[in-house]
Amino acid sequence: MIQKLTLENILFLDIETVPQHENFEDLESLDQELFAQKTQYQRREEFTPAEFYDRAGIWAEFGKIICISVGFFRDTGSKRTFRIHSYKGEESQLLKEFAQMLEEHFSRNEHLLCGHNAKEFDFPFIARRMIIHGLELPSKLNLFGKKPWEIPHLDTMELWKFGDYKHFTSLKLLTRILGIESPKDDIDGSQVRDVYYKEKDLDRITRYCERDVIAVAQVILKLRNENLLQDDQIISK
Question: pLDDT at position 184, please?
Answer without folding.
Answer: 67
